[in-house]
Amino acid sequence: MTALLAARLIMATRRLSRFRLSAPAALAVASLCVATDAIAQLDSCQIQRITLCDGCTVQRRLTVQRDGGCQLQNTVEGAILGVRLVRPPRNGMFGRSNLTLQAYVPKKGYVGEDYFEYELSFEHFGKPARTIIQNIVTVR
After folding, report:
1. Highest CATH level, class, for 3-139
2. Rounded to an integer, what distance in angstroms lies between the CA atom of residue 114 and that of residue 123?
């Protein structure tokens, strides 16, 4: 990791530390759907609630204020096994502090659309499962 990237992630973490997450929501909706991730809302960030399913791809919309950021917290009924970035954002940064907390921060001064994907691997009833999460970002 370059020193510049490390410095940017530290700055992003400081910006995101002021976010308050609502209580995690874990809910089995159907036999296929296994969990719901938590939703974080603040003046600078609105995140659409999603339901995770084994082997599926889900889309989530994020609205971020210019020079703001979003902290994404994933909550599942079992253990989270891994997070893998599939497609990085073109106009911002995606980072993670651990397996349950990820963050998106747009480039300084950027306004417009962005997109990134990551794969969340988790345990469901003792068996491994995974979901691809496509994040459609609007930076205002």
Report:
1. mainly beta
2. 30
